Amino acid sequence: MSTIAYYGSCPSEEFVKYAFPESNLAFFCYGINAASFMDDSKIELEGIEKWPEPVRKKMLFEAKRGFRERLRNANPHTLVIDFTRASRASLLRFKNSLLTVPYELLEAGAEAQRQAFTLFEIIPFGSREFWTLVTDSLMEFCRFMSRELPKTEVIFLDVPPASEYRGVIVDSDTYAMDFCRWQIRYPICRMLIDFCRPRIENSRILMPFITPFSDDAAAYGPAPMHYSPQVWQETARLFHANGGFAGLARSSDPVVTLTSYSGLMNAFTRTASSSRPDLRRFGLDILHGALPFLFAKIRGPADRYFRDPIDSQDVVAAFRWILGREPESAMTFLNHYALADRRELRNTLLRSTEFQNQVKHYAQT
Fold first, then answer.
1. Domain limits at 116?
2. What average pLDDT does the segment 227-232 reach?
3. Could you write out the DSSP letters of every residue in 177-195?
4. Is residue 305 part of a domain?
5. Taking a C-beta distance cutoff of 8 angstroms, is the pair 233, 223 a contact?
6. Is 33 within a domain?
7. What is the mean pLDDT of residues 128-150?
């Protein structure tokens, strides 16, 4: 019997449940941000004794630490990872240690939240400090896996939101709006996969083998990331039929990812167009606004990206003034948005063959 472990949230738990039903689950870590996962300093929490039980239980569990040691001792044959929680949870700083903001705190009421803000420093999701902490900790996590568990097979789950829902929703807008939220979360997860995969040699990427859908039978409710059991069952079956870990892809191609993401967005907007036509524009805003920011800032986190950052309007303006046209595709837009600063953007367009040919034309006229 092989030993299995997972780190992440509901997608990794569901995949392990169906793909390795008879294996020994030697380690699991649910809902802990990578920055907290890699922080070994134990915490003596005070002032939360009267907080709601779910919040207190979650925070005390995380404060015990020792996740790396437990994973090392488990020495799993396979480790399944998903980054869905890292894509939506802020961090709390307590003295010199880090904790993950528990979901339960968001539902605990204003008084508990006020106390939390008094006891902890909030590191907002998406801030420069947040991503610096996350990427630094993931870098150390990759070193840890390569050094301590080089034989462990690491599977990164690439889990896009499902645009199709097969169930009954009381509020017809609920699923659509939840999908919109996951439109921003999914590319974050993918960028973190792209960050870690090359740094862990013994790793692969798994996407659903069939078009995912959600329904009322999903274990965690009718949300776009909570696939129907049939999707997980078929994904698990095809995973083994295709050779298991050895049959998974090793490549990490951002062009394919962005193409898939665009197709996913189009599928969703077609589904939502009958009830909420305005959501198509919302989806386009995400693709041309938030996703380029992630592509540039997360895929290659470095100080140079914060020196003189390129704004999305800069790319469009540069194309209009230098080349006399709009960017011809989302991929062109993303590639130029990912440049280090405005000077490099300007110089790239000035050096382009298209502009040089225009200069010759202007000289002749």
1. 3-251
2. 94
3. HHHHHHHHHHHHHHHHHHH
4. no
5. no
6. yes
7. 91
- At 220, which CATH number? 3.40.50
- Max distance between CA atoms of the chain, in angstroms, equals 80
Structural domains counted in the chain: 1
Give me Rg for the CA atoms of the chain. Answer: 22
Neighbours of 167 (CB within 10 A): 14
Where are the strands (E) in the chain, listed by range?
3-8, 24-30, 78-81, 91-94, 97-100, 121-123, 153-157, 164-166, 203-206, 213-215
- pLDDT band at residue 143 using 50, 70 and 90 as cut-offs: very high
Q: Which is nearest to 76 in space by CA: 138, 155, 14, 158?
A: 155
As given in the structure block, the two tokens for residue 120 are 């902890």
What per-residue confidence (pLDDT) applies to 312? 64
For residue 281, the one-letter residue type is R
The whole-number average pLDDT for the span 265-270 is: 57
- Domain membership of residue 72 (yes or no) is yes
Per-residue pLDDT tens over the stretch 345-359: 899 999 998 998 887
